[in-house]
């Protein structure tokens, strides 16, 4: 888990999936089709078991339980039950339960979880569900390009419910103190960073210490911001490209100029949050919930508009968090009815201030709960349309990305770049080799 926000845990379920996948036996094969039909659809009246993660404080899960237990499906006797699955060893928890036939019918979970369990034959694809939403307005309520973000060759593996975007933050009061402008591109970021350095402030705050993936995310985000990425359009690892080298040369320059704090290589999430809270961080890529993690400077920091890369590209990295259905269910119709009901009620998390995740639904994005939060509103409006996943420069997510995100190659790469001593091409070559090993 990134531990980088206090109330919007975003993609925190991603870490360690590679090791977990290796440690858990292959699941028994189940009948899976792109139409959401399953061999275990059945007609049981047992409750729909919904497993959720601790995406925020315990108040979030209290509300989740209340929403779940209020489910009353039309024409069916199935209710729904709610269980919180801690992030620690969560993949093993799911895998063991699914293998023994005691897993959930529906769950949230790690961003790449639906693809991993789809490969094991345990996911009920959501094609029929999304088709049904086209007639009730729910499909069109998704922000553009989001509804089918989990599309695979075999079907749609899950339906998105929130995003975890990497956005650029700035402490505008520190920028004013340094006599620097809010950056708009790489060149002005360098200029602002040099000005902040003179007052003892980091102009590119990040961290790659134990349990902190923001350093890795920042490196990938910088590549994506320059039109690069880790993969080709067909999913082949391709780290050693001109655009990636150019982006990492820029990061290396930031490190060598002292704009990146020398301690960033070992900063944990708490260390990084403390840098922001104590006004030692002036600019940096973080989650959309940084203002909750660094509450001491909440009035000083703001999400700034996406930077333009050297060639005019504007993009960012984001993670898609989804609700998935499983083939082991008392009734596939009940599972789909519950997911429909649940998506119709997730607005309550934002309405009550329980979560700061970036919404995927227009109705939530335009609600007062979001629009009154200027930073979340800006992240939603300006970053989501530009968002790309780990699959960039491709678009199709796949199970192997969990091994990339949870593996050592990307962490070691981030630590290498933050030290500013290694040639970018050499570092990217090592990264590509590590990714190739991770996904083979």
Describe the structure.
- The protein is α+β, with helices and mostly antiparallel strands and 440 residues long.
- It has helices at 17-23, 58-69, 90-99, 113-119, 127-133, 172-178, 186-197, 214-225, 242-256, 269-277, 290-293, 332-345, 347-351, 362-365, 368-371, 374-383, 401-406, 408-419, 424-439; strands spanning 48-52, 80-84, 106-107, 123-124, 151-152, 155-156, 159-165, 167-171, 283-286, 301-303, 316-326, 358-359, 387-388.
- Helix 8 crosses helix 9 (242-256), helix 8 (214-225) packs across helix 18 and helix 18 runs antiparallel to helix 19.
Which terms would index this structure?
D-Maltodextrin-Binding Protein, domain 2; 19 helices; eight-stranded mixed beta sheet; 39% helix; three-stranded antiparallel beta sheet; 2 domains; disordered N terminus; alpha+beta; 440 residues; globular; single chain
Q: What can be said about this structure in brief?
A:
This is Multiple sugar transport system substrate-binding protein. This protein is α+β, with helices and mostly antiparallel strands. 39% of the residues lie in helices and 12% in strands.
């Amino acid at each position: 888990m990134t531990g980088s926000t206090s109330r919007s845990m975003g993609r925190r379920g991603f870490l360690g999936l590679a090791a977990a996948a290796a440690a858990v036996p292959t699941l028994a094969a189940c009948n899976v089709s792109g139409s959401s039909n399953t061999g275990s659809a059945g007609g049981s009246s047992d409750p729909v078991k919904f497993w959720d993660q601790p995406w925020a404080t315990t108040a979030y899960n209290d509300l989740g339980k209340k929403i779940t237990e209020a489910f009353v499906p039309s024409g069916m006797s199935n209710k729904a039950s709610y269980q919180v699955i801690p992030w620690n060893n969560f993949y093993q928890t799911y895998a063991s339960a699914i293998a023994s036939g005691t897993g959930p019918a529906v769950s949230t979970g790690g961003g790449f979880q639906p693809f991993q369990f789809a490969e094991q034959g345990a996911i009920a694809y959501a094609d029929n569900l999304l088709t049904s939403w086209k007639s009730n307005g729910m499909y069109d309520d998704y922000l553009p390009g989001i509804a089918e973000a989990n599309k695979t060759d075999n079907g749609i593996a899950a339906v998105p419910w929130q995003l975890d975007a990497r956005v650029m933050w700035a402490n505008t009061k520190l920028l004013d103190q340094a006599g620097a402008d809010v950056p708009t591109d790489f060149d002005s970021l360098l200029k602002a960073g040099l000005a902040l350095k003179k007052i003892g402030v980091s102009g590119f705050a990040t961290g790659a210490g134990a349990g902190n993936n923001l350093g890795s995310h920042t490196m990938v985000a910088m590549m994506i911001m320059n039109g690069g990425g880790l993969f080709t359009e067909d999913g082949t690892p391709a780290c050693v490209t001109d655009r990636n080298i150019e982006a990492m040369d820029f990061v290396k320059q930031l490190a060598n100029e002292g704009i990146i704090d020398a301690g960033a290589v070992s900063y944990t999430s708490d260390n990084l949050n403390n840098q922001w809270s104590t006004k030692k961080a002036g600019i940096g890529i973080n989650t959309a919930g940084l203002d909750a993690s660094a509450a001491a400077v909440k009035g000083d920091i703001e999400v700034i508009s996406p930077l333009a890369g050297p060639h005019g590209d504007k993009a960012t990295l984001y993670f898609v968090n989804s609700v998935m259905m499983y083939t082991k269910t008392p009734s596939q119709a009940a599972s789909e009815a519950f997911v429909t009901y649940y998506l119709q009620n997730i607005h309550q998390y934002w309405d009550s201030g329980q979560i700061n995740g970036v919404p995927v639904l227009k109705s939530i994005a335009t609600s007062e709960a979001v629009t009154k939060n200027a930073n979340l509103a800006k992240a939603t409006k300006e970053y989501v349309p530009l968002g790309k996943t780990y699959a960039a420069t491709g678009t199709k997510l796949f199970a192997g990305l969990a091994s990339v995100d949870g593996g050592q190659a990307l962490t070691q790469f981030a630590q290498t770049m933050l030290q500013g001593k290694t040639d970018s091409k050499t570092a990217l070559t090592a990264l590509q080799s590590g990714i190739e090993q991770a996904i083979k």
